[in-house]
Hints:
By secondary structure, this protein is mainly α.
Amino acid sequence: MNLAMQRDIIIWMQGYSNPFTDFFFNFISFFGEPEFYILLLGFVYWVVNKKAGEFLGVTLGFSISLNNILKGVFNIDRPFITYADDIINMRGYSATGSAFPSGHVQGSSTVFYALASYYRRRFLWIFASVMLVLMMVSRMFLGAHYLVDTVAGGVVGIVVATGAYRLYEKVHIDEQRLHKLYLIVLVALLPAVFLIDVNDFFRGYGIYAGIILAVMYEKKHVNFSYDISLAKKALRYVLGVASMMAVMILLGELFALLGFEDGSFGKNFLDLIRFFVIAFVGFGLYPKLYTKLNF
């Protein structure tokens, strides 16, 4: 399908724009953004299942990194840029960089299909599939992606999620082997830091590096449990989310004072550090804190 036909699909979708559809598809798009990932991963890791949270976080970090390597290779302009007179950008701050493949679709499908793979529940597979379709429609309706971008994002997300679980299932019993695999992938992705000029790659790589080092730290120095009351679990979750959001915002504001321009290596590298710190605090240091405080 050529770009003109895909443009026409977006224009047709945006013809149904009204306060309800605008709100609804912006809400759906939220499920592919960092704030949602903090809410979900924090809940799974701090409150429900440590191993599941680790698997989801590591898989997501790798998927985001891969997505932005692909974006750097293909470097396709977004529809609201190519067809600026015809297509409205309805969620600008979440539509940066190139279009192919869709990061929102890939990230959300990675998380939801990874969750379904881990727990093997039919309703989770159905939910993941419904969210995949809604996210694809959302990103086109908002003017951020062509159909081909969303399809590619969905395919890569599913392949990463299901493939990662098959690999995880084989090696997770042997923690040394699992950690060695994490580090091999970390090193394999490292050259992209110097070759890929895509800001979101640095964020994804920072998340991946922060999580794998944090889970190694947690297993060695913390080893928290879930043997606490429901009220304490709720407190653990609320304070954790608030802390992660605060770290993300404060580091963003602090690094902005350094004055690096968007797209510069300095700005990208600071974002790598920022998301590394968020991940390491969330998966390593915060569990240390709530273990000491007994909640």
